[in-house]
Design goal:
The chain has 370 residues and is α/β, with parallel strands linked by helices. It has helices spanning 18-30, 42-52, 68-78, 92-100, 113-175, 181-213, 223-233, 235-240, 258-275, 307-313, 331-341; strands at residues 10-14, 34-39, 56-60, 83-87, 105-108, 219-220, 244-246, 255-256, 281-290, 293-299, 346-350, 356-363. It is built from eleven helices and twelve strands.
Length: 370
Amino acid sequence: MNIMHPKATRVLIADDDFLVMMTIRSMLEDAGYIVVGEASGGREAVQKVQELRPDVLILDLRMPDIDGLEAARMIYECCPIPIVILSAHESAELVQEAGEVGAGAYVVKPPSIHELERAILIARTRFDDMMRLRAANAELRERNEALDAFARIVAHDLKNPLQMIVGFAEMLENYGETLSADERRHSLSAIAKNARKMGHIINELLLLAQMRQDQVERYPLNMAEIVTAATERLQDFAIRRRAHIVTPDGWPSALGYAPWVEEIWVNYISNAIKYGGEPPYIELGADLPKEGIVRFWVQDNGPGIPQEARDKLFHPFQRLHPQRVTGYGLGLSIVRTIAQRLGGEVGVDDAPGGGAVFWFTLPAADDDLP
């Protein structure tokens, strides 16, 4: 909670009774508050809140155009601030209605300065609580939406290879004796391929769950060893795609956690192999430390990434080119999570002459690698 001293608190007063409005203004100014303006109607109050951005609004319940409850609702939706409702009488029903539209306190006319100050304090305190609850609810909605998408994608991407495994296994069980040796080998190869695909999906899910829970200590990385381990994991894939991967002679030192950083490289290089040119030409590199940050990157010779698609790439379940590769949509989300957990960021830019440059940053290490 952030409670300002009265002399720093900017107040807007909205009341259609000029005498009441001037009385409240005088009391507040004598107590050290800053009255930034007045409004004589509900719509004018909404407009002046948007223009003046006061710290608190004192709002009459009954006004000629729209009443205080409707004005409070509109303010809560467009530019929420702490609101104190003024009324000629008090009832449990009105107090409840005021709270439902975002008002934090309620005073009965004519108020004393002590009642106003108490109401302002309560309104600001409840407003802070309300904003925290609003943010928590928004985060919960976002998590639920992500969970729904998660369930759909996982079910789809696990169901397809599972159906292939079951299909080829049933064919071997029912017709194995009549199949040729080549047909049996093809069926067994398809079963193994789809089982590996399911294993890859499960490993990504486990890694994502681990990253959300584990706390790791950052240390200076031997990036050459990490990149070598990543490219070795992708060696067979690179050979099949006839990919050419170029790495620099040396790397700037950065802080991180080697197993996680290796996953970043594997995801970036794997995507570059999938979506690069024919054949893929992939260049890895890093920029010299700037303001304590090292930027590492993977550049491909593919078609590039449209500007409108870039903001979505690092969110779960987004695919780069579904028409070309039906890859699982967690890879770049994992990259973003790793980088942020290690104090860095991720992004994608256009490559000179075409293609894309996927990058991530890590804090620079002051000490040299051993």
